[in-house]
Amino acid sequence: MAQLLEVTNLRTEFKTAAGTIRAVDGVDLSVGKGETLGIVGESGCGKSITSLSIMQLLPKGLGKVAAGEVRFNGENMLDFSERKMRSIRGNEMAMIFQEPMTSLNPVFKIGKQIAESARYHHGVSKHKAKDMAVDMLTKVGIPRPEKVAASYPHELSGGMRQRVMIAMAMVCNPKLLIADEPTTALDVTIQAQILDLMRELQKSEGTSILMITHDLGVVAEMCDRVVIMYAGQVVEETDVKTLFKDPKHPYTQSLLASLPQLNSDQERLASIPGQVPNPLDMPQGCRFAPRCQYAKEICRAEAPELTEVEPGHKSRCLLQQEGYHEYTA
Ligand code: SF4
Ligand code: MG
């Protein structure tokens, strides 16, 4: 599959009161045309920072991309001016977030906001933009689109607002849609509807999706391939089928084990013991060692590399690397 987005060795640093932290530490990932890639991990693993780095929307003065490449259609966007990036955002790439209220302007009517976006990106007349807005609201399954177009954001339910966000993103016909926990705040039924909608739009428009989520159910529904992140790094990468059938990394295995099993009496989610490491004080060896049930002496001394363990399947664990058993026999 031709790659639309190719991120290589991305490093993003943040200034904090206690010192500089490396929130993203050498991430590689790629998204093919029409493909959905999932980025999965617990909160604080660097998945949102990865997407903000790609969009160049890091908070000014606090976060910066310190190294790496973010190639979009073959061009390294890190070389682009802010002006060029502004035209890429929306036109070529759009983003939807968990809480649409933070991206919708509360004082403007919905129709006007979508129309503005359409005008800005397509350079069409006011009248044409208004039609495009209503069309898009229809496309995202909003009943009585004219009425919704004339409403303010606070007059809509959470699910409706999320549809509006998707309409706003899709009216620009982006090649890549970055969705950061787009359904986390919604109830299960609405969540399923929104995911269906995204899949339909992807099919009809050929959009690639980068889906950021902590929810493996969403991954199973939506993704073709997945990268699992832990403590700012990718620890596993594979296709979605293999992820559920044959996860290699102990962290991925514990994420899967924490899912409630069908046909079991287990009522509560098992959680993974321990905490994500403090980024100001990263473990020397494997970053997962403090929580890993297989950790050996060597794991605390040597940092594993992300290694291909089977064709198309990568894992960052000494267990799967040659010679490991000699150390620990
Ligand atoms: Fe666990 Fe060692 Fe593998 Fe890290 S390298 S995940 S500590 S077995
Ligand atoms: Mg996040």
UniProtKB/TrEMBL annotation:
Membrane topology note: Peripheral membrane protein
Start and end residues of each ABC transporter domain: 5-256
Cross-referenced Pfam families: ABC_tran, oligo_HPY
An annotated Gene Ontology molecular function: ATP binding
Keywords carried by this UniProt record: ATP-binding, Cell membrane, Membrane, Nucleotide-binding, Transport
Main subcellular location of this protein, as a coarse class: membrane
CDD domains named in the record: ABC_NikE_OppD_transporters (cd03257)
Compartments, as annotated in UniProt: Cell membrane
Record-stated family: Belongs to the ABC transporter superfamily.
UniProt-listed NCBIfam families: oligo_HPY
Protein name (database record): Peptide/nickel transport system ATP-binding protein
